[in-house]
Amino acid sequence: MSKIAILGAAESGVGAAVLAQKKGYDVFVSDMGLIKQHYKDVLDQYGIEWEEGRHTSEKILDSEEIIKSPGIPDNAPIVATATEMGIHIINELEFAARYTNAKMICITGSNGKTTTTSLVYHILKNANYNVGLAGNIGRSLALQIAEGADYEYYVIELSSFQLDNMYDFHANIAVLLNITPDHLDRYENDMQKYTDSKMRILRNQDANDAFIYWADDPIIKTELHKYGIKAQQCPFSIVSKNGMIGYIENGTYTLETPMPFNMEQESLALSGKHNMYNSLAAGIATRLAGVSNEKLRESLASFEGVEHRLEKVATVGGVQYINDSKATNVDACWYALESMTTPTILIIGGKDKGNDYEAIRELVQKKCVALVFLGADNTKLKDFFGPMNIRTFDTHSMKECIEACTSVAQPGDTVLLSPCCASFDLFKNMEDRGEQFKELVRKL
Known about the structure:
alpha/beta, Protein-Tyrosine Phosphatase, Chain A, 9-stranded mixed beta sheet, 6-stranded mixed beta sheet
């Protein structure tokens, strides 16, 4: 019996463990942290051996293959040792894809992944497709397959971390939304290494596949010539319609292939410049999957958006509060600020990932009446934004943050949580950060 070791016992790791056991592997699960009780129960239910709080080398390094959680870096000692020994290291999606014939619609990009993935899924479900949702959103692909899911399509959100450990995985429809600085701490502060990771979504595509991308992204334009792209290329733009499969011109959303489609931009459920990119990408992907014009129009108009992404929480005392906790990089914050139409109090901060805040300097000066720093260490933020003629607050908990916001906000203002940073310094994750924000706002 072949042995597989699994590093990380959260959604992807536990799903991979269950699938591996069902496929006849000898499975061992190891997590350096503490495993949530729910996942322990699942592992125990299937009789899978596990450990927490350590990595026992003897039980891991005698495996033929290791399935690694995307959150574990390649320089983690156990991973580095396994690599030196020549043990094949993959991720849950790479493993799970071996056991399904479903068509894969895969979405990546520095920003907009979750919104676009959710929109594609919404359109396909609304068109009565047999479709599942997986990857960086939804339930584990491996667990869905282990439990007997028989979908014709999967819509999969892919992070750069997931793409790093994919080798044979094949996207039938690949969507690359943009490439802007993110997670550079994971890539030795080397933008090219991060870019190379994103471009891996092209891996294994052939002439029967499609590659959808934002033609106006400067990095994507620079990178395309490096790849002998065999897939059908489907560029989209909001700047020009020349050579584009999808574009917006004179307030009209237009797709040119596989059949002409258009609708008024104001009829789209999603607003804001960044959401025009997301809507174009989703429209092209679902039209390529065969969705009718009627169902596409209906779905683009009915989509309700994604939690923690420019989510309107409440208006209190004439002040609007918006939760954009998913904005974990500078570019995402730029799009959020760009969409603001009222004086803005921006909440920014967290675990810095090698951020360069220069990109939002002009928008901050133009739109913000105050900045509230929210992090364990706000030194970098204070050094960069301090010299600006904008009032600032230094806070280290969500309670302090909301108190600072309410002390300065005036009727007609917007309080925007769009942190630019990861959440792990003060919060469990970005969802926890967003939930704490919403809970305290609703108590005002």
